[in-house]
Amino acid sequence: MNTEKYTQQVNVIKERFDNDLQELGLRIRNEVVAPACKNHRLKFFSGNGTFFFARGEETYSEVRDLERASKTLRETLEPIINLLNTEIVHNDYLGFYVGQVR
Percentage of residues in the chain with pLDDT exceeding 90? Predict the structure, then answer.
């Protein structure tokens, strides 16, 4: 039984999947995250299995973190944080694919 062709198919699928997620992450960074950062004087950090918005010492990575934020900031960040917390596969979230904004 030749299994090599299946291994090759899986590798092609994984590469396409990763490329699609990287492309989507870049679009989300440029079209959603960067404008929110600019409008609210925020930075966005991602890497090492985490992602979050920051302004000074305040950080926002979960919707519950927004309780201490202004109404305007909550209304802006809540849908973005929900989007970034979309699970792609087990413990792999969309926010991991969105580049930093400083």
Answer: 94
